[in-house]
Specification:
Layout: E1 15-27, E2 30-36, E3 44-47, E4 61-69, E5 72-76, H1 88-108, H2 117-133, H3 137-154, H4 166-169, E6 185-187, E7 194-196, H5 203-211, E8 226-230, H6 232-237, H7 247-256, H8 258-261, E9 290-295, E10 298-303, E11 312-317, E12 322-326, E13 339-342
Antiparallel strand pairs: 1-2, 1-4, 2-3, 4-5, 6-7, 8-9, 9-12, 10-11, 12-13
């Protein structure tokens, strides 16, 4: 024994301080919880305390047993019951950073979409340019939260096979789980392999199906009634370039097709099989609302002016017996309950 005095400081007694829970943060690619000392006026510290039941609420004040030793701040046990909250502006900032961190953690475990790295980088460059101009923490968090919210808002609804007509449920699915209509399968010019392209119609297939009174979405017989779906201009002219289908399938399309459901949704085009040509007279713009017309019969006539090998077909329905009008709600999503007018 040397008789030397120990060099470590005696253990400090834990003291109660009021800290604000700031939400989730990303630390070294993992999850951590943020706490703001001094009732939200101090520094932000990252911990992973154990919670005995329940969960923490962003923006609330919690009593925390704190030990400060050798320049370090230690949380002793789990915070107690919340009491009080911070002001609205700070709470909004903390929630924005919390949701942004949740999105980042989710993205860390996902592969980039199959758009190609260069195309994806080009697509997000405008957002990066905006972010580089923002120096305030609140503004950067708000921007990230806004982008995440917009992406979430644009996501199409999940498709439950139990909600689909049986013949449509039996169709092949794309990566989102959506059925692939036969009119959106196009042969690759080089290999002949069928590829999915939702931006245009395989006119050879659609014309053949319409001639046999078969649905363009499920290939089954349409039955006594047949449905046409399009914008108000097509309904006014009673002329469609999209082929008809059975009533059940067309009604399903209004509720689940991303292009229809989300008002701001736009179709990708340009490097997909068959993409790039619109029917003569079409402008490709999205209608302000959608009209589903139900009739008994229709005529199909070739549409002049197409450069496509098989050409486009115009479908001329008989007067509609029933018209369903679907409009967009304030949140930019289609209202699944239509206004119905009977002829």
């Amino acid at each position: 024994m040397t008789g030397a005095e120990p060099t470590t400081e005696p253990l400090a007694e834990p003291m109660v301080e009021w800290w604000v829970y700031g939400g989730i943060r990303v630390l070294y690619g993992g999850r951590a919880l943020a706490w703001l000392t001094d009732s939200g006026d101090g520094e932000e510290l990252l911990f992973e305390p154990r919670r005995h039941g329940g969960s923490f609420t962003v923006g609330l004040l919690y009593p925390v047993l704190v030990i400060r030793r050798e320049g370090r701040t230690l949380m002793h046990e789990s915070p107690g019951k919340a009491h009080g909250r911070v002001d609205r502006n700070l709470a909004a900032l903390l929630r924005a950073e919390h949701y942004a961190a949740q999105a980042r953690l989710a993205l860390l475990g996902m592969k980039p979409p199959t758009l190609g790295r260069i195309r994806l980088a080009e697509a997000i460059e405008p957002v990066r340019a905006i972010a580089r101009e923002l120096t305030d923490r609140a503004d950067r968090a708000a921007l990230l939260a806004y982008v995440v919210a917009e992406l979430e808002h644009s996501r199409p609804p999940a498709v439950d096979p139990a909600n689909l007509p049986a013949r449509l449920a039996a169709r092949p699915r794309d990566r989102r789980g959506l059925p692939i209509p036969p009119v959106n399968l196009h042969p690759d010019p080089a290999t002949g392999e069928l590829k999915v392209d939702f931006t245009t119609i395989n006119t050879t297939v659609s014309t053949a199906l319409a001639a046999e009174r078969r649905c363009s979405l499920c290939t089954g017989e349409t039955g006594y009634w047949v449905a046409f779906l399009g914008g108000p201009r097509a309904a006014e002219l009673m002329q469609y370039t999209d082929p008809p289908g059975c009533v059940d399938c067309m009604t399903w399309a209004v509720r689940f097709c991303p292009f229809i459901v989300v008002q701001r949704h736009r179709r990708l085009h340009g490097d997909l099989a068959g993409a790039g040509e619109l029917p003569p007279g079409s402008h490709g713009e999205k209608p302000p609302y959608w009209v589903l017309g139900i009739t008994r019969s229709y005529r199909a006539v070739p549409l002049p002016g197409s450069v496509s090998a098989s050409g486009f077909t115009a479908y001329l329905p008989a007067p509609f017996r029933t018209v369903h009008t679907y409009t967009y709600a304030a949140d930019g999503r289609i209202n699944p309950v239509p206004t119905i007018r009977r002829g």
